Every structure is written in C-alpha cells, then in structure tokens.
Amino acid sequence: MNIITISRQFGSGGRQLGRELAALLGYDYYDKEIISAIAANKGMDENYVKTALDSGRLQTLQQNYRGSLAKYTTTANTSLMLEEKKIIEQIAAQGRDCVIVGRNADIILSRYKPLNIFVCADMSARVQRCTDHAPQGENLTAKELEKKIKQIDKARTKSRRVLTGKEWGRNDAYHLTVNTAAWNISGLAVAVADFAQKFFGRTDV
Hints:
Blueprint: E1 3-8, H1 14-25, E2 28-30, H2 32-42, H3 46-54, H4 76-93, E3 98-101, H5 105-108, E4 115-120, H6 123-132, H7 142-164, E5 176-179, H8 185-201
Parallel strand pairs: 1-3, 1-4, 2-3, 4-5
Helix pairs in contact: 1-8, 2-3, 2-4, 6-7
C-alpha cells in the first residue's frame, strides 16, 4: 500500500495537486470526505466541523498525537480531533493506495512510511489563486485575502504544534517540497506522480 500525504499553505494549490495526482496514479483521494465522515459520525453540521478543526483553538493534549490519547482535556474540538485521527487510521487500514490532503495525516500515519509532500507558493501567487477560485459571492480585496491566508496558515501552524509537538512546514518533515508559483498544476502533477512512483519503487529502504 502506498500513501501520499499533502500538507499545504493556503492558496498554494495543494488540494488541486493532490486530486490530480490521485487521478494520475489511480489512487483513492481523501480531503473533504474526512470532514463529511466526522460530521456523519458525530451528527454535526459539516461547516461547523470544518470551522472547529481549522480554527487552531485547541487544548494542549497531554500525550503525543501519534500515541495513546488516554489523557487529554475533554473539549468539543479535542473530540473532533480524535474522531479525525480514527477516520484517517481507518482509511489506511483499508490497505488501498491513497492521497490524503491535510489533517496531519503525515504524522498520524507515520508508521506506514508515506510519501509526505509540502506545497507552497509566494504570497502574490496565493492571492491570485484565491481570487481565481473564490466562491460565488465572495469579493475580497487582495489585502483581505492576504490577511485570510495568514490567519489560516497561523491556525495550521498552531494546530500542528499543539497536536504533534512539531512545526508545520519545517523542511525536514517532508520528502518533497513543491513551489507551485511558476507551474501549471496539471503539468506539475505529472512530475510529482513520476517522483512518487520512483519513491515507492526504491529499494534502499
């Protein structure tokens, strides 16, 4: 079984890269599906679950996220994080090749030795991508978008530090860091798919 995890700066195109990479390789793809599963299991609204998990307002867990979570502060957000962890582990337990976007899957599934990718881009490229892919009715200015991008990245940084004790975006946490600024995502996906095939086919492990 081959697992690819994608961590990404907001607006960098990591979600699109993951989706196209999965299609090229014939892998299962997981992104919003994880939120949907959590909401279904908890009987909650999907938008609420996504907002709660992405807010970065989490209580400090008393044990590493990869290990036992027998001791933790009981909060609504902590409960959702535990459910998220369980669902991601269930995905891996199916034994199918897959791409998982975000959700600290690289940490949760570290024992499976996934290919961990970090997707980034400069701020101007990220603002432009957010503008191009803005939901209908959202008309944020470039300044407003930059503020939103920084807020979301800050929340991801905080969540990862709290849950794993590790820094989000740190170079040595990933096998491949990709800057999408000067790339067409579809073309980039072909190159990354070739890298992934070589990564999983290597014999030096």
